[in-house]
Amino acid sequence: MKRIGLVGARGHTGRELIRLLSRREDMGLVFASSRAMAGESVTALASEAPRELRFEALDAEAVAAKGADAVILAMPNGEAAAYADAIAQAAPGTVIVDLSADFRFDASWLYGLPEIHGRDRHRGATRISNPGCYATAGQLCVAPVRHLLSGPAHVFGVSGYSGAGTTPSRKNDTEALADNLMPYALAGHIHEREMSRHLGQDVRFSPHVAAFFQGLIATAQLEFREPVTQEAFKGAYLDAYADEALIGFIEDRPPEIRDGAHSNGASVGGWTLSEDGRRGVVVCALDNLLKGAAVQAIQNLALALELDEFEGLT
Ligand SMILES: NC(=O)C1=CN([C@@H]2O[C@H](COP(=O)(O)OP(=O)(O)OC[C@H]3O[C@@H](n4cnc5c(N)ncnc54)[C@H](OP(=O)(O)O)[C@@H]3O)[C@@H](O)[C@H]2O)C=CC1
Ligand SMILES: CC(=O)N[C@@H](CCC(=O)OP(=O)(O)O)C(=O)O
C-alpha cells in the first residue's frame, strides 16, 4: 500500500481527499497536517479516516522527513514552494500533487488534467500540479472544438462558496450571499490565464459565486471560423470523451448545478448553435471540490504511482 500524506487536511478539499483515500485499498493516509486541529482525531472531521490518526501541525521539513510515497498539498495559494523545496532536499522521490495554483504555470511540473492533456507523462512523475476547478470545467468545454475557433472563447462561471475555501471572506459569507449572486475577478482571474495557457487558445472568463455550498457551472460561448452543424458540434464532444469514465453527457438539456454537485465526474452538454452555425454554446457542470479538485488529485496520484486511476471514484 502506498503511504500518502496530506497537508491542509482540515480544509474543504482536504476533507474530500480523506474520504476518497479511505475508499482505496492501494493508498493509505499516513499523516494529516493541520495547525488548527493538531492533536484532534482525524475522524472528528471525517469519520472515514483511519481510527488511530490524529492531525499534526507539520512544517515543511517535518512533512519531508515523513518520507511518504506521496504528499498531497491542499493549502491556499503561495504556500507550496516551501514544501516542494523541503521534499526535494530530504525525499526527492516523494510524489507531490499540489492543489494550489502555485505551479500551474511552471513547465517543470506536470499539469494533470488527464481527459484533455493525456496520461502519457504521468508514470514516474513526481511533481504534479492539479488544475483549478473552473479551469477544469472551462477546458472540458473548449478543448474538443478549439481548432475550429475564430477568436477567444468566453466562459461564464458560477461556483458554490466552498470554492472560496475556509478563510472567511465576502465570497464565503453566507449572509452576503443569501438571495445573491456575486461576480468577481472579471478580468485576469488566474483560471483565465490557466485555461488560455493549457488550451493554447485565448479564453475570457467571468466567475461568480452563489449561495449554495458545492458545485460549479461553466458556460462557454464559442465563435467558429466556419459554420458548423449540430451533429458536428455535439459529435466533437462525444468523440473526445467517449471513453472517459468520469465524463458524462446530457444531450437533451443543459447540465445544471445539481448534475455536477456531489458527483465525482463532470457532465457536459446543452450544445446550442446560433441560426447561422457560427456560434456555439456548451455547458459543463462538476463539483468544484471533487472533479474540480480532490477527485482529479486522486486520478493524478494514481497515474503517477502506476495504480488504478479510478478505484474508489467510479
Ligand atoms: N475549494 C475549491 O473548490 C478548490 C480549491 N482549490 C485549491 O486547493 C487548495 C485548498 O483549498 P481549500 O481546501 O478550499 O482551502 P481551505 O481554506 O478550505 O483549507 C486550507 C487548508 O490549508 C491549511 N493552511 C492554511 N494556511 C496554511 C499555511 N500557511 N501552512 C500550512 N497549512 C496551511 C489550513 O489548515 P490549518 O490552518 O489548520 O493548518 C486548511 O486545512 C487551495 O490552493 C485552493 O485554491 C482548487 C480547486 C478547487
Ligand atoms: C468562489 C471562489 O473564490 N473560488 C475560487 C476558485 C478557485 C480555486 O479555488 O482554485 P485555485 O485558487 O486553486 O486556482 C477563486 O475564484 O479563486
From TrEMBL:
Its EC number is 1.2.1.38. Pathway: Amino-acid biosynthesis; L-arginine biosynthesis; N(2)-acetyl-L-ornithine from L-glutamate: step 3/4. Gene3D superfamilies: Dihydrodipicolinate Reductase, domain 2, NAD(P)-binding Rossmann-like Domain. Residues 3-124 form the Semialdehyde dehydrogenase NAD-binding domain. One of its GO terms (cellular component) is cytoplasm. Belongs to the NAGSA dehydrogenase family. Type 1 subfamily. This is N-acetyl-gamma-glutamyl-phosphate reductase. It comes from Marinicauda pacifica.
